[in-house]
Amino acid sequence: MLLWPLLLLLTAAGVQSDWLSIDMPSYAYEGDEVVVKCSGERNNRISTLTYYKDGSLLATYHNLSSYTISNARPSDSGSYSCEANRKFFFVYKTEKTRSVWLTVQDLFPPPTLTIRPIEGSSVTVSCDTRLPWNRSDTQLHYSFFRDDHTLISNGSSSEFQIPAIGKGDSGYYWCEVATTSHSVSKQGQRSHVLVQRVPVSGVFLETQPQGGQALAGEPLVLVCSVAEGTGDIAFSWHREDTGEHLGRKQQRSQRAELEIPAVGESHMGRYYCTADNGHGLARSGALNVTVRAPASRPVLTLRVPGTRAVVGDVMELHCEAHRGSPPILYRFYYDDVFLGSRSATSGGGASFKLFLTAEHSGNYSCEADNGLGAQLSEAITLSVTGSKCIQSTCFGTPGWLSG
Ligand SMILES: *[C@@H]1O[C@H](CO)[C@@H](O)[C@H](O)[C@H]1NC(C)=O
Ligand SMILES: *[C@@H]1O[C@H](CO)[C@@H](O)[C@H](O)[C@H]1NC(C)=O
Ligand SMILES: *[C@@H]1O[C@H](CO)[C@@H](O)[C@H](O)[C@H]1NC(C)=O
Ligand SMILES: *[C@@H]1O[C@H](CO)[C@@H](O)[C@H](O)[C@H]1NC(C)=O
Ligand SMILES: *[C@@H]1O[C@H](CO)[C@@H](O)[C@H](O)[C@H]1NC(C)=O
After folding, report:
1. What is the pTM of this model?
2. Residue span of the structural domain in which 133 resides
3. Do residues 165 and 195 make contact, with C-beta atoms less than 8 angstroms apart?
């Protein structure tokens, strides 16, 4: 009975011993699992294990359990130790370990959101944080929010783009970075974005094919663009010469197209376009649209002074394509021999004069060419009869005059 006071004395004092040891890391990152393990030389003698942090009790086990911090936080940093009660023959003895200091570091700082404009009115929103080099292979998920809307949820990219930012994109933007398991998740500060509408300016009309030159029957695209201007833009196409309104398109883009599926001569004229995003209308310069058509098959006519072609006459060969864009080059042929050519810069065709000799019977033809494909006329057969003598001089040698 006298032993009891002694036992109680021993228990209260505690003994730091080599018998009991503590095993745990000194450094961890938040989100890590940290195991604090206490064990003794002869574990079977341990009846209770008590874990402490900064002197306060964490847990008491009646077996050999270790203490686990499953998702470490910086607040778990501190001094850890444990205490074991073991049976020493018939008395209970208390052993205490040394203290081990645990530092739980931030895996990454809260992200910072940056909004950078890229060409035109598009922006890149990026959510940046930093991983320590010894954890650089940690996979992260990025979520982006505007006010209460989720823009991107758990994406693998730290950036996203808003293609054409408009007034409706104004608001508070923020992002969240998390590990894939969501053991660590951090939000960044909110940043306010106010999208102001930029009035339209630098309205420009161009065509495809370029320069307003179109081929009859082919499509022509009228492209209206603005150098600056945001939001929904209403584009309109007009003809300056006729006052005609050709079309209107409203889109959230700095560029719009209007197509004429098959151009004809009626489409020749002066065009312009306008753009308006509600902050004043702006107009482009005028553009001439010219429609080039290939020459049609020309018609050859032969004109002689009398009713028949007689040696000594000056014959006029007239060639005319009724359709086709000038300038047209007319070529004249006699029995497939090239006689000469004439260019016509306006309609009405072209003429060529030939001084007829007896050898000039045969087939005549002409060709019209404006660079879009040459067209040959039908042949005309001519027979030159007799001879023409003026004051006893008869013309018998071939020769031609220029027109
Ligand atoms: C990671 O590296 C840093 C710097 O070298 C070091 O201080 C830290 O203890 C390491 N952390 C872990 C958990 O290994
Ligand atoms: C120890 O006991 C606790 C309950 O007190 C139990 O949850 C745990 O699994 C036990 N551990 C071992 C290693 O037996
Ligand atoms: C991302 O995934 C986690 C876990 O699956 C979920 O709890 C969280 O709500 C998700 N985040 C968003 C923005 O959807
Ligand atoms: C466009 O055509 C008009 C006549 O229709 C002419 O006066 C003007 O010089 C032309 N402009 C260009 C750039 O060719
Ligand atoms: C002229 O054309 C006709 C009919 O196309 C043909 O029969 C004749 O042989 C041609 N004459 C010459 C000289 O080529």
Report:
1. 0.52
2. 112-193
3. yes
User: Do residues 249 and 266 share a domain?
Assistant: yes
383 lines ligand 2 (CB under 6 A): no
pLDDT range class, residue 12, cuts 50, 70, 90:
very low
For residues 287 and 303, membership in a common domain is answered with no
143-157 in b/e form (b: 16+ CB < 10 A) is bbbbeeeebbeeeee
- pLDDT tens readout for residues 77-98: 999 999 998 877 778 888 899 9
Asked if residue 42 and residue 15 are part of one domain, the reply reads: yes
Residues 147 and 98 reside in one and the same domain: no
Q: Rounded CA gap, 248 and 110, in Å?
A: 48
The domain boundary, picked from 292, 321, 348, lies at: 292
Atom number, ligand 2, closest to the C-alpha of residue 64:
13
Same domain, 312 and 226: no
Distance of CA 294 to the CA centre of its chain: 39
Which residue carries 């042949």 as its tokens? Answer: 379
Are residues 32 and 64 located together in one domain of the fold? yes
- Looking at the predicted structure, is the pLDDT value of residue 128 above 60? yes
pLDDT digits (tens, 9 = 90+) for 204-224: 999 999 999 888 899 999 999
For residue 227, the SS3 value is coil
Burial 75-100, CB ≥16 within 10 A → b, else e: ebbbebbbbbbbeeeeeebbbbbebb
- The enclosing domain of 276 has a CATH number of 2.60.40.10
Q: What is the pLDDT of residues 306-348, one digit of tens each?
A: 888 888 889 999 999 998 888 999 999 999 899 999 999 888 8
Average pLDDT over residues 231-238: 93
Name the closest ligand to CA 67: 2
In-domain check, residue 3: no
Digit-coded pLDDT (tens) for 129-184 = 999 999 999 999 999 999 999 999 999 999 999 887 777 888 999 999 999 999 99
pLDDT of 387 reads 61
Same domain for 396 and 303: yes
383 touches ligand 5 (CB under 6 Å): no
Check pocket membership of 335 for ligand 5, CB cut-off 6 A.
yes
Q: Whose CA is nearest to atom 14 of ligand 3?
A: 153
Domain stop point among 137, 170, 193 = 193
